[in-house]
Amino acid sequence: MDSHRQHWGLSQWVAYLREKDIPVMPRSRGLIGGLDVERVSPREMAEIATGDPFLALRLLRRAQRRRSAALGHDTTTLLGAVQQVGVRGLSEACAESPLCDDENAGLAGCEARAVLSARIARHWAAHRADVSPEEVALAALLGEIGELMLWAFAPELPERARSALRLGLAARNAQAQSDTAGFTFKQLSLGLIEAWELPPLIMQLVRGADTPRANIARIASDAARHILADAENPALPDDVASVKAFLPGVPWHALLAPLPIADEYRVQVLQRVLERPLAPK
After folding, report:
1. Model confidence pLDDT, tens digit, residues 96-128
2. What is the pLDDT of residues 147-191, one digit of tens each?
3. Which residues neighbour 271 within 8 Å (Cβ) at sequence distance 6 or greater?
């Protein structure tokens, strides 16, 4: 990292990263490059974008730029974005973008966490009739975009935070980030979402407004982080119990269904949440 950047604050990093040409994961280009754009459906393309937060961001920004004033509302789902720019438009966006270094372990881990967050969030949100599962999934997918952009363009910064956490110099991720960078990576995500003029709803959900949608996205992100840190993370029962508060009528087994954990540990998590005392009415 250049010496002058070591003293940058949040606003300077936002100004620097907002101008970067957003890369995509190499696997996305491989998947889309092998498709016949005349035959593939917008839903199939949106599913590919859901598996790559960089591509999702690139797609959403293109859709925002092309949004007609007559449309009257923001594009807040990836399917809507594909329908707006077209299958060929997404294919072109992927082909013309630079590629991420998927051998960068920090970037790969953060990207995997974002994708898993989106999958869990979409599954959970589908159980509520008053929310859009795709909007919740998109918010979970983009919630890590600040850290992802750092891994892509200034990996020394998140590496310092990770080292501080590993060495016990900080107890939590947010503290490690604040201590080493002067801001949290969530603050950077929010700053970039605003700078890129993404839909206000995405900002609200990533910020964590106290709504069912925002809370489901947040808890899904927590669960993904815990699972990828430890396949039998003891914090996972807390995550499942927390989301139950926003999905009270959903059976426990349905809440556990999207979590990629071993069956034996799934049983243990279920036992632990069932053993919890009932909350006072």
Report:
1. 999 999 899 999 999 999 999 999 999 999 999
2. 999 999 999 999 999 999 999 998 889 999 999 999 999 999 999
3. none
Helices (H), 145-233: 145-153, 156-166, 173-181, 185-195, 200-207, 212-229
Domain boundaries, the chain: 24-95, 105-236
Q: Span 105-236: which CATH code?
A: 1.10.3210.10
| Of 186, 194, 120, the residue nearest 149 (C-alpha) | 186
Residues pairing with 99 in the sheet: 24
CA distance 19 to 196: 9
Residue type, 274: L
Q: Let me know if 278 is exposed, middle or buried by CB neighbors in 10 A (0-12, 13-18, 19+).
A: exposed
Per DSSP, the three-state class of 24 is strand
Tokens 């750092």 sit on residue: 150
